[in-house]
Specification:
Elements (H helix, E strand, L loop, with lengths): L5 E7 L3 H12 L6 E7 L4 H11 L6 E5 L7 H11 L4 E6 L2 E3 L3 H8 L4 E4 L3 E2 L2 H6 L2 H6 L5 H5 L10 H4 L2 H10 L10 E5 H6 L12 H11 L3 E4 L6 E3 L9 H16 L15
Parallel strand pairs: 1-2, 1-4, 2-3, 6-9, 7-10
Antiparallel strand pairs: 4-8, 5-10, 6-8
């Protein structure tokens, strides 16, 4: 089987209704030479059944990489998914981020040796998140400003992410003060580079494990490129029961050492995967 140009890694955990909307978004992509690699941190069997049904309906490959539920182990399942990727280029996002139809084309067109790409998201309130359905994803209406405002979204200057054309998006990418970091909800890079730094640090749970990966990529010599106004995905609202201060503090300490010691490699990454 021919390897795809892009492997798309999507993380999920027992959020099937949101995952459905995200996968419907990938079914609408203009760029078609990709595979989906779903990094599942222990979801129940209903998720697996939907993925099997979805796989039979689309013209691109879908891999479901699953591990037992042992609490928040996102870094570990992302490493397993990364190992399974067949493409040379990897786009990473989350199972609560619906991609606009040009999402993968933007990542493909902006990819460049020596760089990783940093995107963002447009966050929706719960009312609007629940209003999005398959027809609004298929038609693209869920990315339309007026459609969203009519379904509970409050007006905000951040709507420019959805309304900017290619020229304005390029300008906004250039002038935004936001750091072009590796953002787990919307980032991409060469698989070889991700392997060279040993993937995600599996000691890290919620709170910055994606940023730490990006810091090691930069220590490795890569530069980052800002595409937050070009590669568009909308973020569905949800509670964060896994968020806790102890995890955040632990991750901050690991990141501090990565920066202070200019670390490229983690001893707790891809090479630690068992099964």
């Amino acid at each position: 089987m021919k390897s795809p140009q892009i492997s798309v890694v999507i993380s999920t955990y027992n959020a099937l209704e949101w995952l459905k909307k995200v996968l419907w978004g990938y079914a609408q992509q203009e760029f078609r030479d990709f595979e989906l690699v779903i990094a599942d941190d222990g979801s129940t069997s209903d998720t697996a059944q939907f993925i099997r049904d979805f796989k039979a309906q689309v013209d691109f490959a879908v891999q479901h990489i699953w591990q037992e539920d042992e609490g928040f182990q996102k870094s570990r399942i992302l490493n397993k998914a990364l190992s399974a990727c067949r493409g040379d280029y990897v786009v990473m996002s989350d199972g609560d981020c619906i991609p606009r139809k040009d999402f993968l084309k933007v990542h493909y067109d902006h990819r460049e040796p020596g760089y990783f790409l940093s995107g963002g998201y447009f966050m929706l309130p719960m009312e609007t998140s629940e209003a999005i359905d398959r027809p609004s994803i298929t038609s693209g209406d869920c990315f339309d400003k007026q459609w969203l405002l009519a379904r509970g979204l409050s007006p905000t200057f951040k709507l420019r992410k959805l309304t900017a054309g290619p020229f304005l998006a390029k300008v906004l990418n250039a002038i935004t003060p936001t750091n072009a970091s590796w953002n787990g909800h919307n980032a991409s890079g060469w698989k070889a580079d991700l392997l060279a730094v040993n993937g995600f640090d599996q000691r890290m749970q919620y709170g910055g494990q994606d940023r730490e990966l990006g810091e090691r990529l930069m220590n490795y010599g890569l530069k980052s490129k800002q595409i937050r106004y070009s590669a568009i995905c909308i973020h569905l609202d949800h509670p964060r029961g896994y968020k806790n201060q102890a995890s955040i503090d632990k991750n901050r300490a690991i990141r501090s050492i990565t920066r202070k010691e200019n670390r490229v490699w983690t001893d707790y990454g891809l090479t630690q995967i068992k099964g």
